[in-house]
Specification:
Structural class: alpha+beta
Strand order of the largest sheet: 4-3-2-1-5-6
Mean pLDDT: 80
Distance between the termini: 59 Å
Radius of gyration: 22 Å
Length: 142
């Protein structure tokens, strides 16, 4: 086999591997987006210890959404998990958000060091009052 033929075959083999690699990578990204939907980019924005709120039920059109459950974010090996408020059950972000209504969630970061989420109680059946306080800052929502 001539040197020129070996070079051509080597270049073709490299291009073929690169082409199929790009296809597989694209399919991987599509699978993530199909599974996580609006939550797919949360892993780039959230940090360990962020507080995530979800609404279990939403009101009718034009009514305020009541965020009545929360959890604590934990990032591990490129995945985002949520600990429940008692820190007893750890679930994947998608599974945790799916249990709410329409995956409506908001993520906040604590601004004040003396803030203790475990001492916070529901007011009028929701945690919405915290979202307007100076203790938390909005990180992301869907």
């Amino acid at each position: 086999m001539s040197k020129k033929l070996k070079i051509i075959l080597g270049v073709l083999a490299t291009l073929l591997v690169a082409f199929f690699g790009l296809i597989i990578f694209g399919l991987y990204l599509m699978a993530d987006e199909d599974r996580y939907g609006d939550l797919v980019y949360f892993d780039q924005k959230v940090e360990d210890g962020d507080i995530i709120f979800r609404c279990k039920y939403t009101g009718g059109l034009g009514q305020t959404t009541k965020f009545n459950e929360f959890g604590i974010i934990e990032k591990s090996w490129g995945n985002v998990y949520v600990w429940d408020k008692q820190k007893t059950i750890k679930k994947d972000l998608y599974d945790w958000a799916e249990k709410g209504n329409g995956e409506r969630v908001k993520v906040f970061r604590v601004k004040k060091s003396n803030f203790d989420i475990n001492k916070v109680k529901l007011e009028n059946g929701a945690y919405n009052f915290l979202m307007n306080s100076d203790k938390l800052e909005l990180v992301t929502e869907n």
